[in-house]
Amino acid sequence: MTAGNPDIISAKRTVDKEIEALRMMEDQLDDNLTKALDVMQKTKGRVIITGMGKSGHIARKIAATMASTGTPSFFVHPAEASHGDLGMLTEDDCVVAISNGGESKELSDILIYCKRYGIPLIAITKNPESSLGKAGDILLRLPDDGEACPLGLAPTSSTTATLVLGDILSVALLERKGFTKTDFKQRHPGGKLGSFLKKVSDLMHKGDEMPLVSENTSMQEAMLVMTSKMLGCVGIVAPDGKLKGIITDGDLRRCLGPDILSRKVSEVMTLNPKTTTPDILAAEALKIMNNTGKGITQLFVIQDDKPIGIIHMHDCLRAGVA
Asked: Does pTM top 0.70 for this prediction?
């Protein structure tokens, strides 16, 4: 049924047509891309993205992607620009104007304004001989390969190509600026993405919350510490403050006997326990816990071999890290 399904045939035809357009755009990439990136990277103000209709929808997404990846950017509606929003543009900005055919009348006032005030203009269009193509200081060409729409009218392949070109610019700028996961986190504090980007240092228990005892401590005292801190373990530190071992709930069950309370922690502890550092993602710490094969649920956080915190699996799960 699937092989002859007209909907599947149509879907694959659309996919093939849009891939073909992307391949054409890939082949057309030239030094103008580098010139455009140079302009955007050197811009002291904002990268202003504009476009009308479907190009405008794509422009909004490009501006949002740039803003979230280290390039201050926002969308200006070309029609609104003609009614006061041109005041959003300054001589410290640059403008990226998008029009597949290059003849969107609504863009004309923005183009004139850029020329009047010397604002760099990057044109994205398939037609270098269009009004937009000629007005741009730098031209980034879209593929002139028709649309996936069987009527050849609805923006489909062209908007996909524009979207991908926006991603090309955003990713290249991100790489040029050395944008990091920490930078990304600062711009995405909410939702699942914000949770995923939390570091161990954001979730760990520290100070008096850490269950720590010296290696000469009795098991009776260690069990009281473990119970009061409620993290399912106790860490054993050497005289120099370095973490030497750990005793977990599981270790207690394995070592239960009539003399357990009178023994020293050094007789029961597991040496060289798995640890983590404060600057790694909590998701990575959770992976360490899951991949040990021993079902551990906590990790001491170490700096210069000394415990500065402890993170529990439940801390990660409560924060939405999974």
From this structure: no
